[in-house]
Amino acid sequence: xxxxxxxxxxxxxxxxxxxxxxxxxxxxxxxxxxxxxxxxxxxxxxxxxxxxxxxxxxxxxxxxxxxxxxxxxxxxxxxxxxxxxxxxxxxxxxxxxxxxxxxxxxxxxxxxxxxxxxxxxxxxxxxxxxxxxxxxxxxxxxxx
Length: 144
What we know:
Layout: E1 5-7, H1 9-13, E2 16-17, E3 20-25, E4 28-31, H2 43-49, H3 55-61, H4 65-71, E5 75-79, H5 81-90, H6 95-99, H7 102-107, H8 109-143
Parallel strand pairs: 1-5
Antiparallel strand pairs: 2-3, 3-4, 4-5
């Protein structure tokens, strides 16, 4: 990140055309001009997001890991610290900010255990019940 140039939000706002398309995602500045024609969602989506912080739109779409890796190619800088503070202050605090994003929860090993324990307990209870029903049916068959 030391090699990246620092840009202000005002500088980013100057690049909102198909000849120069910039936006900010997670405080990094991206120049996606060369990617406009290749974007699977169409160039209009990128042009609408240009010149501003597009972090929320990017996350809402649910981009793949491949898309995230491809982004590095278009990263040209980092947003000025003062503008980062302004953006953070202007955003309402969402539920995901207070309890962690979905990806944070899903990558947490502790949450995996709590997410899987209920189906395992249900499966165990059903198996236990079926075992006793089977044994009871066998017993009633032999006594007839």
